[in-house]
Amino acid sequence: MHIAIAGNIGSGKTTLAGLLSKQFGWEAHYEDVDDNPYLNDFYEDMQRWSFNLQIYFLNSRFNQILEIKRAKKTIIQDRTIYEDAYIFAPNLHAMGLMSTRDFDNYSTLFQLMCSLVEPPDLLLYLRASVPTLVSQIQKRGREYESSIRIDYLKRLNERYEAWIESYKLGKLLILEADHYDFPNNKEHMGEIIDKINAELHGLF
């Protein structure tokens, strides 16, 4: 089975993936942040590096999905291939940080990849307000994220909401990140586990 977590920067995807991996015995596949050769450059000069970064992520996530398909176990994935194509790349294009030529090239490649892969069996969407995102980003203290602007996060949130509203590829569970302190509150984590069990196995 393939479970995926979607959510804006700082919504808690990696933390939740790790906790659910332990709880259910699922294998976690994380976003390639530490080894990403473009992230630092991107945050310093978005216009120059936006296409390179998005192609890197697309390639990385396509490979992840192929691995998930080959695996004979349940895998939980931190961020999906869809978020890059429906949220991050169009946002960069709309902000004038990715040319129309590059965006069209990227979109064509994404459509081709999508035709070759299956969507997740369950998508968990971590919905978080901008203040929650800012607080989480500051807490983890990644240097390259210190320059992320609030209006950038707000634009991404708007695109996430529009995408989730139209998501029809499979089961979807929306989790309100503002209301859950899942890393530190066992009751909150228990609630999330119950909701996931209900989606996967139905209510008994």
Short description:
This protein has 204 residues and is of the alpha/beta class. It has helices at residues 13-24, 39-44, 46-70, 81-94, 100-114, 130-140, 150-165, 186-201, and strands spanning 2-7, 27-29, 75-78, 122-127, 171-176.
Structure, described:
With 204 residues, the chain is of the alpha/beta class. It has a single domain, classed as Rossmann fold. It is 56% helix and 12% strand. It has eight helices and five strands; from the N terminus they run E-H-E-H-H-E-H-H-E-H-H-E-H. The protein has helices at 13-24, 39-44, 46-70, 81-94, 100-114, 130-140, 150-165, 186-201, and strands at 2-7, 27-29, 75-78, 122-127, 171-176. The protein has a five-stranded parallel beta sheet with strand order 2-3-1-4-5, with helices on both faces. Helix 3 (46-70) runs antiparallel to helix 4, helix 3 (46-70) packs parallel to helix 5 (100-114) and helix 4 (81-94) crosses helix 7 (150-165). The two termini are 20 Å apart.
